[in-house]
Design goal:
With 135 residues, this protein is mostly helical. The chain has helices at residues 18-30, 34-40, 45-74, 79-89, 104-122.
Length: 135
């Protein structure tokens, strides 16, 4: 009796072409998200990420490098564009530092302003129209 060939289970293996790889590389370099790239190459997101993860990482690093280079060149002529690229693409942020140091003059100025405000509030008439009482 002849032996039967075992049945192949599951779906056929996905073929990965050079053309698909080029599309993935180009889209990653443009900054597309994984779901967008997977849709472009008509592939499940998980499959695309599993197969092309190193390529995605490489092209995204290349994108950041090229953006930094362009930012450096643009900074000479267009500061606003350099700031925009830095904040939106390279995760650069403004740094606000608080020293926590108060001088005695700051304290007196704040107290002076507070007492002036309290006096103005007391002088409001009962109708609340902001006119001072003339008693």
């Amino acid at each position: 009796m002849a032996e039967k060939e075992p049945k192949k289970l599951g779906r056929p293996r996905k073929e990965f072409s050079k053309e698909t790889e080029e599309k993935v590389a180009e889209a990653a370099l443009l900054g597309c998200q994984n779901a967008t790239i997977a849709g472009l190459v008509e592939m499940d997101v998980g499959t695309m990420v599993n197969h092309y993860s190193s390529l995605l990482q490489k092209k995204r690093k290349q994108r950041k490098y090229e953006l930094r280079l362009k930012q450096w060149n643009l900074a000479e002529n267009n500061v606003a564009m350099a700031i925009f690229l830095g904040k939106n693409e390279l995760e650069q942020r403004d740094r606000h530092e608080l020293t926590g140091k108060l001088t005695l003059a700051d304290v007196f100025l704040a107290a002076d302003q507070e007492s002036e405000l309290a006096g103005a509030i007391k002088n409001l008439d009962k109708t609340g129209d902001g006119k001072e009482n003339e008693d």
